[in-house]
């Protein structure tokens, strides 16, 4: 091979090696900067709420169902044919209003007969009285003692006949009056189960209609026996202040709207169900507009009293496998730590805890789902409104990154 040929062969080889060396040098220069950037991950922004101790209400959310304050099936007390239906089905009636009229011709005749019997019985009274007085004068001058006693018995029998006739008259008057079936209290009627001309019998099983009083109205609630024991323990220890029997109650209706009136406890069942482990509470609510109807399902929020502690919004808390409440906090050096609270109470949309929290601790309320214990965070001051939504303060949000 000539010298010229060797130069032609070696020149491309030298150029290739030079380009490779330059590329390796460039990669070596860039690699440390890239690795350092990967290691220096910026802190995760999270919304925090500063813990403040206070007295907060202890509440319970209980399922319930509405029941009429008074309810009765209207039944006849005498037998006869329905002559008149005097109410509009589904309308409101007042106590004493006429609902049904039963044919009363036979009862009117019975009343007239009873009056005649009274008059007949009363007519024998004067004669018996005069006869007794005559034998009383002659008992020692011709009349015997037996005749006198007989006259006295005759008068007593006449008076008894009058009393019996008057009782029959009163019965006839009552029966005639019972042909008019009236409302026993203010309420709302249901559909009539009879028509004009139908024969009804005294004290029959089937009701002619149903009358319900809707204002006020009962709400039947159920509570677990476990919560009952916890409540009694809290009261005995002095942690819970207030009288649960005076607790105010608010309702949420089936469509999610808040009922505008508050209610009061009416009674508690002094027994626990053997099948469900719950006991029944009955509350009474005003219902002037008849918004709540019997049978409707509702949810009641009951304020049992107040207790001193710290509020943890429900959105910021979770439950572990043992059912204990847990939440994440930001430490002084902005590290994440998880705290567990074995004991907690419901307070509106929050959990109330008494142990494991101190004044000024920073609770993470948003962004905690993607961070673990020990992670570095960038806290941003925020608040949680009554709907459970996190509201970040703009000034604090701007100042926090600057401080970092």
From TrEMBL:
PROSITE patterns: PROKAR_LIPOPROTEIN. GO terms for cellular component: cell envelope; plasma membrane. One of its GO terms (molecular function) is transmembrane transporter activity. Residues 216-305 form the Multidrug resistance protein MdtA-like beta-barrel domain. Residues 1-25 form the signal peptide. GO terms for biological process: response to antibiotic. Gene3D superfamilies: 2.40.30.170, 2.40.420.20, 2.40.50.100, Helix hairpin bin. InterPro entries: MdtA-like_b-barrel (IPR058626), MdtA-like_BSH (IPR058625), MdtA-like_C (IPR058627), MdtA-like_HH (IPR058624), RND_pump_MFP (IPR006143). Pfam families: Beta-barrel_RND, BSH_RND, HH_MFP_RND, RND-MFP_C. Residues 73-210 form the Multidrug resistance protein MdtA-like barrel-sandwich hybrid domain. Residues 111-179 form the Multidrug resistance protein MdtA-like alpha-helical hairpin domain. The keyword Coiled coil applies. Its main location: other. Keywords: Coiled coil, Signal. It is found in: Cell envelope. Residues 111-175 form a coiled coil. Residues 311-369 form the Multidrug resistance protein MdtA-like C-terminal permuted SH3 domain. NCBIfam families: RND_mfp. Belongs to the membrane fusion protein (MFP) (TC 8.A.1) family. This is Acriflavine resistance protein A. It comes from Pseudorhizobium banfieldiae.
């Amino acid at each position: 091979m000539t010298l010229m040929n060797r130069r032609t062969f070696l020149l491309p080889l030298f150029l290739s090696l030079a380009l490779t060396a330059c590329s390796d040098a460039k990669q070596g220069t860039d690699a440390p900067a890239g690795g350092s950037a990967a290691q220096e991950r910026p802190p995760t922004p999270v919304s925090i709420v500063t813990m403040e101790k206070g007295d907060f209400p202890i509440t319970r959310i209980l399922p319930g169902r509405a029941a009429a304050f008074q309810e009765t099936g209207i039944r006849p007390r005498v037998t006869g044919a329905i002559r008149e239906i005097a109410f509009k089905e589904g309308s409101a009636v007042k106590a004493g209003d006429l609902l049904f009229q039963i044919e009363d011709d036979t009862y009117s005749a019975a009343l007239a007969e009873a009056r005649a019997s009274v008059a007949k019985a009363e007519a024998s009274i004067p004669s018996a009285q005069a006869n007794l007085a005559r034998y009383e004068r002659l008992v020692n001058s011709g009349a015997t003692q037996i005749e006198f006693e007989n006259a006295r018995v005759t008068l007593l029998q006449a008076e008894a006949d009058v009393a019996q006739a008057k009782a029959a008259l009163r019965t006839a008057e009552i029966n005639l009056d019972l042909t008019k079936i009236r409302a026993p209290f203010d309420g709302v009627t249901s559909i009539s189960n009879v028509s004009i001309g139908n024969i009804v019998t005294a004290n029959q099983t089937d009701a002619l209609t149903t009358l319900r009083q809707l204002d006020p109205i009962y709400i039947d609630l159920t509570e677990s026996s476990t919560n009952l024991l916890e409540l009694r323990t809290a009261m005995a220890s002095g942690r819970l202040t207030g009288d649960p029997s005076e607790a105010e109650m608010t309702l949420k209706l089936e469509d999610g709207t808040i009922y505008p009136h508050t209610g009061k406890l009416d009674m508690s069942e002094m027994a626990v169900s053997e099948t469900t482990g719950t006991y029944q509470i009955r509350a009474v609510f005003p219902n002037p507009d008849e918004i709540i109807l019997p049978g409707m399902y509702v949810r009641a929020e009951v304020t049992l009293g107040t207790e001193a502690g710290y509020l943890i919004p429900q959105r910021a808390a979770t439950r572990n496998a043992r059912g204990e409440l847990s939440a994440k906090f930001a430490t002084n050096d902005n590290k994440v730590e998880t705290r567990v609270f074995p004991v907690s109470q419901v307070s509106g949309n929050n959990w109330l805890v008494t142990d494991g929290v101190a004044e000024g601790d920073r609770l993470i309320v948003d962004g905690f789902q993607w961070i673990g214990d020990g992670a570095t965070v960038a806290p941003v001051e925020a608040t949680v409104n009554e709907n459970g939504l996190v509201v970040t303060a703009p000034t604090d949000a701007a100042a926090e990154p600057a401080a970092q």
